[in-house]
């Protein structure tokens, strides 16, 4: 049974909903997702507290506008929390999570277009966030995903480095090695930092 967040994420990815768009009513969401209106209301309150939606009396609920950030701001935010996220993943991930992480790696390896490379790069990082089984972590990840999509540009050389570093991250997670996973993500983000900030004043 999908959550409200899962439903909204799917709608955004498909282009059916855009930032600032009105979200279906509680009654409609309850019918769509097979949940009670009380459950839907509670989930929307959580999403509002996380800044994912805004609620306006008499008007309804709306997807929050995406904050546009600079490359420096984005990488600073990622460096502050993603390494610790990986330490949590190494402990919390299940066998099903491992399978999804491997699927993202394999599809990323097989990708032949820039669009597919970016898609599976984002999917890999999202699979890691979901492997914490912590809805707050998943929501924080999704808050920066649109800016990552806007700011991420990969060359063939970048792709080779990313594939190697993604494998190092995944191997540490599969080994249940929190310190190794943390260190692997720190190395990866250093690579991303150099790439994103090169040529900037």
UniProtKB/TrEMBL annotation:
Keywords: DNA-binding, Transcription, Transcription regulation
Lineage: superkingdom: Bacteria
GO molecular function: DNA binding; DNA-binding transcription factor activity
Domain HTH gntR-type: 1-66
UniProt-listed PROSITE patterns: HTH_GNTR (PS50949)
Ranges annotated as spanning the membrane: none
InterPro entries found in the cross-reference section: GntR_C (IPR011711), TF_FadR/GntR_C (IPR008920), Tscrpt_reg_HTH_GntR (IPR000524), WH-like_DNA-bd_sf (IPR036388), WH_DNA-bd_sf (IPR036390)
Pfam families in alphabetical order: FCD, GntR
SMART domains for this protein: FCD, HTH_GNTR
Protein name per the record: GntR family transcriptional regulator
């Amino acid at each position: 049974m999908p959550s409200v967040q899962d439903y909204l994420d799917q709608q955004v990815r498909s282009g059916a909903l855009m930032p600032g768009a009105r979200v279906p009513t509680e009654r409609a969401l309850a019918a769509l997702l097979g949940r009670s209106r009380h459950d839907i209301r509670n989930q929307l309150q959580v999403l509002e507290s996380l800044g994912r939606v805004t609620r306006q009396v008499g008007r309804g609920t709306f997807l929050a506008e995406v904050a546009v950030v600079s490359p420096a701001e984005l990488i600073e935010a990622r460096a502050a929390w993603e390494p610790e996220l990986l330490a949590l993943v190494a402990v919390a991930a299940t066998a099903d999570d491992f399978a999804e992480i491997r699927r993202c790696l394999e599809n990323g390896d097989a990708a032949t277009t820039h669009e597919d490379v970016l898609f599976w790069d984002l999917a890999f990082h999202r699979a890691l966030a979901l492997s914490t089984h912590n809805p707050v972590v998943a929501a924080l990840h999704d808050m920066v995903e649109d800016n990552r999509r806007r700011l991420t540009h990969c060359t063939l050389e970048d792709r080779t480095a990313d594939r190697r570093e993604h494998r190092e991250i995944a191997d540490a997670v599969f080994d249940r090695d929190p310190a190794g996973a943390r260190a692997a993500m720190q190395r990866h983000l250093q690579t991303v930092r150099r790439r994103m900030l090169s040529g900037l004043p």
